[in-house]
Structure formats: structure tokens, C-alpha cells
Design goal:
Blueprint lengths: L2 H5 L6 H7 L9 E11 L5 E12 L13 E5 L12 H7 L12 E5 L23 H15 L7 E5 L1 H12 L7 E4 L8 H15 L14 H14 L3 H7 L3 H16 L4 H9 L17 E6 L11 H6 L5 E6 L14 H14 L3
Helix pairs in contact: 4-5, 6-7, 6-10, 7-9
């Protein structure tokens, strides 16, 4: 899984997600790799070969002209990969017969973003010399994967969680005619500022200021920095109601910290994490929200620390969408803080609505 679905399994999906994430997936994806040659980043840097790993489920259906008509793009969160969408709390609720993304009707594409999963990333060998990618680069790369790698010229739906939610807004502005609908979950379409920027900056500073980081050329992971990073991730993805219920005493909370931190930092790479968080540095789709022409079903949860509803940003910005609906899921024993986006039973009715609304 990921920072925001495993390191945020300490937080985003808290306890239960981590346990469920270890179950063997019910659905087996076909995996592949696409090589983008001479890929140019917005920073001016270039890679001779950019590797993009992806998973597909279901089969593409084509119209009389040979165009794929049933493709759905699933976009993961920061530090994650397309693998997260095979977790039972997501796949078992959506991919089966008669379910919203029934694999007999839809062709699912779940790629790993640049710097994530099995796609090209700093830890492959370039370390801190890897190009400084951003969200626009990541969206461009996925567009190339779809059009040149998979022969998909139009998407039935783009569904994105957390970082993938932000990518969905970038997609809607950059390629407004490419998708039939958008379903962004757990984000805001504005510059990352305030508390959201604060914890991200603290996390990145912890890595850069750790002497063991060695400007990214470490031989062993800077574990002091990673412990700090994991603590920040745990708070950022926390679900207060669930945490209070599961950790009702000081001893239970302390034991959770002791048991979870070492386990989770073992799967982190400091350079990868630094790049993943830093990729959001220039994200800000707010000036051009009116250019999004596709129907949008935008969903946040009320217990999301990263996107707190009391800011009122979502309510204001959603009014600027031509065909947008914003839903705030109230806190309950079924919500999981920021990670509610992966528990499909909570929100699948809204997915059905946007698919029906955008059907042609």
C-alpha cells in the first residue's frame, strides 16, 4: 500500500485497513509496464525512459470506430500505488456482478504514479538526482500511458483518492474532453496551505535536516527522520472517533505507537517519501475550475484532518463547477478519517449516481 494507505494505514485507514490490506485480493489484475521515451518534466529535466507500471481489470469494449468506451482510471494517493484498489474494502464492494464497477462492463486501469509503486522513482538508483516531478508531470505521464500504451482515447470515469483526487481536478482542467465524469475523493482544489502545508513542510524538513540523509546519498535509511515522518502521517490521517474507540487508554495509545512505527518505517524510503510529498508544491487548480466541463461528484468526509470541513473551502469552490456536486460525509463509526475514500461501502451510492448522471 502507501503512505496515505499504509503509512497512512497507521492513520488514513488506521487499524482495520492495515489488517484487511494483508488479505489476498479477491480480484487479480493484469500487470504491465509502459515506457515513455525522452520524457520531459516541467522542471526542464528529462528521462530517457520513464517507466510506468499499471494494473488492469476487465476488458476494453470498443465502438464501431474502434474506440474504447468503458475505461475507468483509478488514481491512488501520495505514497500509494494502484495495488490499493484491490483491497477488499474497495474491490469487493465495487467490482463484482451488479456492483457499480462490475468488471463485466468496465475496463479498470490502476497505474502507479511517477515516484510511486513500481514506476520510476528516486530509490531506483538516481536518489536525489531524480527529476523533481510535480502533479502536472504525473497527469501527463498517465495520459501517455492511456493514449500511447493502452490505446484509450476517452475515459468513462476518473476516480481519484487524496493525491489522486487532486490529480482528478488537474485532469479536468488539462484534458476537459477526455473523460465522461470525475469523482475526486478527499481533497480540495486549492493551493496547499495552512495546516495542510504545515505538516508536509515539517515532514520534508525532518528528512532534509537529518544528518543521515546525506543530501539523498545515504547508504542506510535516515530512521530518525522517518520516525518523525511516520508520526506526522499518523496524525494527518487519523480518525478521531475511531482512534478514541480503539485506543481508550494511555497504555493502548502508547502500545500502538510502539508497535506500529518500526513496522511502518521499514517500508519507507526517505528520498521517495520526500519527492512524493514535495510533488504537491505547485498544485492549485482554483483559478480555472470553471473550465472543467465533465460532471463532477466530489466527496470529502467530515473527520478528514487533511481537508477539514470547517474551512468551508469545498462549499465555496464547488459552486464554480459547471456540473458539480459536493458531498460531505458525516462522521460515523463507518468513516475512517482521510482514508474514508477507500471504504466503498460508505459512498458507493454516489458512484452509482455519477455513472448514471453521465451515461450517454
Amino acid at each position: 500500500m502507501s503512505i496515505f494507505t499504509r503509512a497512512l494505514a497507521a492513520a488514513t485507514l488506521v487499524f482495520t485497513m492495515f489488517a484487511l490490506g494483508q488479505e489476498a485480493p479477491k480480484y487479480k489484475a493484469t500487470e504491465g509496464e509502459f515506457l515513455a521515451h525522452d520524457f520531459k518534466f516541467r522542471s526542464g529535466e528529462q528521462l530517457a525512459q520513464l517507466r510506468l507500471h499499471y494494473r488492469t481489470l476487465g476488458k476494453p469494449m470498443r465502438d464501431a470506430n474502434g474506440y474504447v468506451t468503458n475505461a475507468v482510471l483509478l488514481l491512488h494517493g501520495t505514497g500509494g500505488s494502484g495495488q490499493q484498489f484491490l483491497a477488499p474494502q474497495f474491490a469487493d464492494e465495487l467490482f463484482g456482478p451488479g456492483q457499480p464497477l462490475d468488471l463485466s462492463h468496465y475496463f479498470i486501469v490502476a497505474p502507479d504514479g511517477i515516484g510511486h509503486g513500481q514506476s520510476s522513482k528516486p530509490s531506483d538508483g538516481m536518489h536525489a538526482h531524480f527529476p523533481q516531478y510535480d502533479y502536472d508531470d504525473m497527469v501527463l505521464a498517465h495520459h501517455l500511458l492511456l493514449t500511447e500504451g493502452l490505446g484509450v482515447q476517452h475515459l468513462r470515469l476518473i476516480f481519484g483518492t487524496s493525491m489522486g483526487c487532486m490529480h482528478a481536478f488537474v485532469w479536468g482542467e488539462t484534458y476537459p474532453a477526455f473523460m465522461g465524469a470525475l469523482m475526486p475523493m478527499a481533497c480540495l482544489p486549492v493551493q496547499i496551505a495552512g495546516r495542510n502545508r504545515l505538516w508536509r513542510k515539517m515532514l520534508m524538513d525532518a528528512i532534509r535536516n537529518d544528518p543521515d540523509w546525506k543530501e539523498g546519498e545515504y547508504k542506510e535509511e535516515p530512521t530518525r527522520a522517518l520516525r518523525t515522518a511516520q508520526g506526522l502521517l499518523a496524525i494527518a490521517g487519523s480518525a478521531p472517533l475511531m482512534m478514541q474507540k480503539r485506543l481508550p487508554t494511555q497504555e493502548a495509545a502508547d502500545k500502538y505507537v510502539a508497535d506500529s512505527v518500526e513496522l511502518r518505517i521499514a517500508s519507507l524510503d526517505a528520498n521517495d517519501l520526500l519527492y512524493q510529498v514535495n510533488a504537491s508544491r505547485n498544485y492549485d487548480p482554483s483559478p480555472h475550475l470553471e473550465t472543467i466541463s465533465a460532471p463532477v461528484m466530489w466527496i470529502n468526509s467530515a473527520d478528514d484532518f487533511i481537508n477539514p470541513p470547517e474551512l468551508g473551502i469545498a462549499e465555496r469552490q464547488s459552486k464554480r463547477l459547471k456540473h458539480g456536486t459536493f458531498v460531505l460525509i458525516p462522521i460515523s463509526e463507518n468513516t475512517h478519517g482521510h482514508g474514508t475514500h477507500t471504504w466503498a461501502a460508505v459512498w458507493q451510492e454516489y458512484l452509482k449516481q455519477i455513472l448514471n448522471q453521465s451515461a450517454h
